[in-house]
TrEMBL record:
Protein name as catalogued: BhlA holin family protein
Transmembrane segments: 6-26
Natural source organism: Acetanaerobacterium elongatum
The keyword Transmembrane appears for this protein: yes
Domain of life: Bacteria
Keywords: Membrane, Transmembrane, Transmembrane helix
């Protein structure tokens, strides 16, 4: 009976360690995906600013064209 109990606890320990490893892998993957998302969001913000700058540059060019006429 004690051998069964020892086997049971060994299995519980193995399951706990396995769960910890898998949980750690999930955390690492989530952290990696969060970093990629931050980079993506940074690119989107920069693109938005670039679009605004381009719009204002085009309007200035149009104003200069009208002044030259």
């Amino acid at each position: 009976m004690t051998q069964l109990s020892v086997e049971f606890w060994i299995q519980i320990i193995i399951y706990a360690v396995s769960f910890g490893v898998v949980f750690g892998q999930f955390q690492a993957k989530i952290k990696y995906l969060e970093q990629k998302l931050d980079k993506h969001n940074n690119v989107i913000e920069r693109l938005y600013k670039l679009e605004e700058s381009t719009k204002s540059a085009h309007s200035r060019i149009d104003e200069l064209k009208e002044d030259c006429r």
